[in-house]
Amino acid sequence: MNRRKKRIEHWQVIAACLMVYDYLALNAAWFLALWIRFDFSFEAIMQKFLLRFRQFTPWYALGCVVLFLLCHLYRSMLRFSSYRDLSRVLILSLVTSALHIALGRLLVGHMPVSYYMMGPVLQTVLLILPRVSYRLVLYLQKLVDKGEITDRVMLIGAGAAGQMILRDIRSAEEIHEKVVCIIDDNPNKWNRYIEGVPIVGGREDILTNVEKYRVTKIYLAIPSAKAEDKKEILGICKETDCELKSLPGMYQIVLGQVSVSDMKEVSIEDLLGREPIQPDMKEVFEFINGKTVLVTGGGGSIGSELCRQIAAHHPKQLIIFDIYENNAYAIQLELKEKYPELNLEVLIGSVRDIRRLFQVFGKYRPQIVYHAAAHKHVPLMEDSPNESIKNNAFGTYKTALAALMNSCERFVLISTDKAVNPTNIMGASKRLCEMIIQAFDAKVKEKKTSEIPMLFPELPKAELPERIEPKTEFVAVRFGNVLGSNGSVVPIFKRQIAQGGPVTVTHPDIIRYFMTVPEAVSLVLLAGTCAGGGEIFVLDMGSPVKIDTLARNLIRLSGFVPDEDIKIVYTGLRPGEKLYEEKLMAEEGLKKTENSLIHIGCPIHFDMNWFLERLKELREASESNSEEIRDLVSELVSTYHPAQPEVTVVKDAKYVALTMPEADETKHAQDND
Fold first, then answer.
1. 52 contact partners, CB below 8 Å, separation of at least 6
2. Residue range 397-414, pLDDT digits in tens
3. DSSP 8-state secondary structure symbol assigned to residue 503
C-alpha cells in the first residue's frame, strides 16, 4: 500500500527555528543577568554560581520550550502577531521566571539577588524581540514593495468606520493608495489627527481639500448618517472628478454580512447570489479558430461581448455589423488595442437593408454568423409593434437569407425566454425569429431551399449569387435577462439609488432568470459549436431571482437600508409583462447535451410552408404600419396571447402606482439594430 509522504509545511520550519531561538535566548538571558552582576567580567563570576547555572538553566530552558509548545505559542502567525499574542508571551515569561527562581533555589541553591531581578526582564525582552521584529521587517518590506502611491484618498467620516478603512488601506499589500485627509462634520474633530492623517473640516471643505491634497478617490465611511446627509455629501462629491465608493452599514459589518475590505463598486456578480459560470471554452477555440465570423448588432452589450470572446479565439477575420456607429467605433478601438494582430472589419449597416446585407455577405463570405441585432425593450415595442416585426422578424429573415445564399456554414440566432408563451410583441417577434430559422434549416435539410420565398422585391436578381450551395445550419440560443447589459435593470436601480430613491419595481412577486454578459456569451458560443441544425438551445440560468430581492440587495450593497434610507415603490405590471419568464414552452421537451449547462428544446411542429407563405402578408402589414399587426402575429404564433391593460387599485400603502419613469425589469440584453 502506498503511503503519502508527510509534507513539512513552511510554518513548521519557522516554528522549529523559533523553538531553537527560544532555547538559546532563555539560556542567554539568565547568563547575561549573571554576567551583568559581576560587571561584565566572566573571570569574576564565582565558580559555584557558574556550576549552579550549568546544572539548572539548560534544563529550565528546555522545560520552557516544551511548555510554550503545549500552550500553542509556536502556532501563531508571526506576520499577524497582535497585542494578545504578545500578552501571552509576557504572561508565560513571568510564570516561568517565577518557576526558575523557586525551583533553582530548591534544587541547586541560591543565586545573587540582582540575578533574580534582571533575569526575568532580559528573558521577556529576548522572547518578545523576534515576534515584534518579524512584523517590523515585513512592514518595512511592504513599504518598499508597495512602490509609488497611485491614488490619493479623501476619507469622509472620522468615526470607527473611517478608522477601519484607514487601517485596511495601510495593511493591504496590493492597494497602492494613501489616505491624505479626512472630512467630518463634527467641529470638535477639526485640526486633529487619526493615525497621522489630518481631519481638515466638514462637508463644505470637500472641494477645497480635493484640490489642495490632489485627491483622486473619495471613500464615504459614514454608515450611520441620515439619507438626506448622504445625498447632500454625494452631491458635493459628484462635482469633483474623483472616484467615489461607499461603505455598507455598520450593522452589516458587525453581523459579518460584509467586510470593510469589500468596500467597492457594486459588482454584477454580487447580485447573482451564486458563483459565476466558467465553462470550458476549448471546443469554441477549435470551432472558431481560422474562420471568418460575422456578428450583427456587434456594438451592443451582447454583441460586443461576443466580439471580445471571438477575438480571443483567433478567427481568420472578425466582421462587426451594426447600425449605431458610436458603439461600433468603441468596440473597434477596444479590440484593436487588445488584439493588434486581429483581422477586424467594422461595418455600418442595418439588418433591415437586404441589399447591404447581400453586399457584405458577398464580399466577406462569413462562415459563422451570430445574429444579435434586435429591438429589445418591451414597453417601447408595445408602443411600436410594427417596428418590432420589421427589425426583429424580417431583419432575421433577411440576414438568414443572405447567409443561406452565400453558403454560410452556421447561423446562430440570439433569442430570449420572452419568446416562450409571449404576452408582448417583442417576445412574439423573437418567437417568429425562431420559427424562421427552424423553417430555413428544415428547407436546407430537405434540399428545398427554392421554396423559401424571397419576399423582397427591392433585391434585384442580378445581385443574387450565381451559384448557391445551401449548407447553412440554423440554430437559436435562448436565455433570460442579462445583468449589466444595455437596458438592464441594474444601472437603472443604481441611478435611482444615487438620486435618493425611490427604487421602482413593477410587482413584489415578479421574478426573472439572470446571467452576466460574459456567462451568457460563453454559453452562446458553446451552444453554437455543438449545433446540428434546427435546435433551440436553452441555457441553464440557475434559479430565478425576485426583482424585489435584487433591488433590496443592491440598496444594501450601496450602503443604505431598504424602505428606510431608500424607499421601494411598486408600480404595477405594464401591458406585455409577466410575473415570471419561462425557458421552454409546455409542448417542448428538454434534451440534455454533453454540457450540463446547455439543453435542447425539441422543435414544435408547425406547417412551415403555410408559415412562410403567410410571412408575405405579415411583411406587407408591417411595412404599411397596420393597426392589426398583433392579430396577424397571433395567427402565426399560436402561443402569443397579448396581455390586456389592467387598471389595478391597491389599498396597500406600499403599492403605489406612479406616472414617473421607472425601472424596466423585463428588458432583455440583446443588441439594438
1. 104, 108, 109, 111
2. 999 999 999 989 999 999
3. E
Is the pLDDT reported for residue 520 higher than 70? yes
Asked if 471 contacts 573 with a C-beta cutoff of 8 angstroms, the reply is no
Give the whole-angstrom CA distance, residue 262 versus residue 155. 16
CA pair distance 90, 132, nearest whole angstrom: 13
Alpha helices in 268-322 (DSSP H): 268-272, 282-288, 301-311
Kindly report whether the peptide bond that precedes residue 502 is cis, defined as omega within 30 degrees of 0: yes
- Note if the pTM is more than 0.85: no
Instruction: Respond yes or no: is residue 336 known to be catalytic.
Output: no
Tell me which amino acid residue 460 is: P
| Pairwise CA distance, residues 447 & 453, whole Å | 14
Could you tell me the CATH superfamily of domain 151-265?
NAD(P)-binding Rossmann-like Domain (3.40.50.720)
pLDDT at 243 over 70: yes
Burial 104-137 (b: 16+ CB within 10 A, else e): beeebeebeeebbebbbebbbebbbeebeebeee
pLDDT in tens, 577-601: 667 665 544 445 566 666 666 777 7
CA 625, CA 623: separation in Å to the nearest integer? 5
Q: Where are the domains of the chain?
A: 10-144, 151-265, 282-485+515-541+583-636
**Which one of the listed residues 418, 430, 578, 583 is annotated catalytic?**
418
Mean pLDDT of 26-37: 92
CB 329 within 8 A of CB 372: no
Which pLDDT does position 578 carry in this prediction?
Answer: 66
- CATH architecture assigned to 282-485+515-541+583-636: 3-Layer(aba) Sandwich (3.40)
